[in-house]
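Researcher: Here's a chain I'd like modeled. Treat it as a single chain, no partners, no ligands.
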Amino acid sequence: MIMFIVTPLLFFVLALIALAQDSDSLQKYTISAPGINATFIPYGARLTNLYVNDKNGNPQDVVLGFDNASDYIRDDETVHTYFGPIVGRYANRIKNGTFTIDGQTSNIPKNDNMGLNTLHGGNVGYDRRNWTVVSANATSLTFSLLDHGFEGFPGNVITYATYTVSEGPTWTSRLVSIPLDEPTPIMLANHVYWNLGAFVDSTSSTILNDTLHMPNAARYIEIDNIEVPTGGLATVKDTPYDFTSSKQIGRDIDSAINACGYNCTGYDNAFILDRPRKSAPESRDLSQLTMSSNATGIQLDIYTNQQSLQIYTCDNTNGTIPVKQSQQHADNTTNVEQYGCM
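Model: Modeled as a single isolated chain. Structure tokens:
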């Protein structure tokens, strides 16, 4: 079982920014603890590999990415799959690429849906920035990024991303963003693509056979046909989006039509996390998502202090991108098919 703890914390901290040193944006940094091994690069503060043991005790890489770090830059300049980075300054979509705060209107590059929306912070979001390594040891790694009003967002923002691994195995991601001088929207996300089956056999070439459980996700955010929130909230009861009881991801996916945009079948939805009364609104005491693969016996549990969780079932991957060498288990090259990750 992997425990993934996400704690984006919005508070003010003091930091010795002067201690930061520039680093090679594609240099790999590996942290490890018993049962877990994670590798990152400063380009996008990006997770490139995450190894945990399967049911037979063999280490498996359960996240998607590239073997050659330079391929992340090539990918960003072409299909832009967002494998493994932090996305921001504002994750997900901004309608018409514009918003107004305190009477001041900002216009952000519209890089989604043929120029209708802003996606993940614009043309050059946090995923395409070279973050600075400010601290590193055997089990923990901290990146920082100073945003001087990138892409037209108001004000300056400094962000810290601290990744820690521990016995369990557990990977903890702590994100802290500090607006320095102006009000601004901030919403960050770890944009990790998971395949807990690690492509070990034909049953794990997609995540459709994996089991998913989100016990507190009884509501989801409604979107229009270009995936912009409408302002409405819907209940999952009697819909394909109901994972409040454990079920295979593929069981109802063919009925999830247009939920991920026009003429799209699959999941790309933000679910509201309605914690029970015994749990505080920002508590991390309960798993908000459990996903497991029969092929490897690997289980993922996500704990977070946030009130929403987005899942995307790789609806648009089309078999043109090969998986990493660590995930090539067949005689022929395995590529990432539709629904090959989440």
